[in-house]
Specification:
The protein is built from 8 helices and 6 strands, in the order αααααβββαααβββ. By secondary structure, it is α+β, with helices and mostly antiparallel strands.
Amino acid sequence: MDAADVRELQHSDSGPATQEFPDALAAPLKLPRGSRVLKAGLCTTVVLCLATSFVHVVLVFLHVAPASTLSKRYNPQINAWVYPFFEQNWRLFAPDPDSVNRQILARTARTGSDGSPEVSPWFDLTAVDTSAVEHHAFPSHTAQNMLRRAWSGYVDSHGGDDRARTERALMMQKYLSNIAANRVAAHNGGTFDFIQLRVVTRSVAAPGTTVGNRPPTPVENRLLPWWKVTRHGK
């Protein structure tokens, strides 16, 4: 065996030479354009959700915590975020059931073609909510609590009179009037520019009291002033 045969045998034992592709290994994999846009949108959504959650927790904490310099300074912003949807109270842990029944009625007014005021009959808003609760196995939160909570917030911010002295009082007044106007427009239709509410309060009799032995039920009839609302109807 000569030297050429030895070199050929050594080459065959070592196997074929490894081929390298430096360009293919060095180039990173690129995602399609649609996938990159979707990934960027998802990351942005997650960041916004985290930021909103953080702001919500901070504002609610400042609302329920004892008054401080920071909460007093940003009180309008805190109240604008918390009320009326994120209001905090202790009723979940110490429930205080209502001892009265309230009937909230509304009527509307507009100026006629001859310039004279036209006033509609009273419309029972509470009766509509009661009917929606009684005839549904799973009544909505709107039918159960929206009108009631709006009235409670109005009373808490206004007291015994109907003068709005704070920004929250003005907000609760607008909130209550908008709810009433939207519901009247949905059920009765027509065109109106003003709305007025009347709230009749009756005490709930003690448990076990028979109808014949019940004492006279005290009644409070509170008539609110006329409020200007956004024109409803056509």
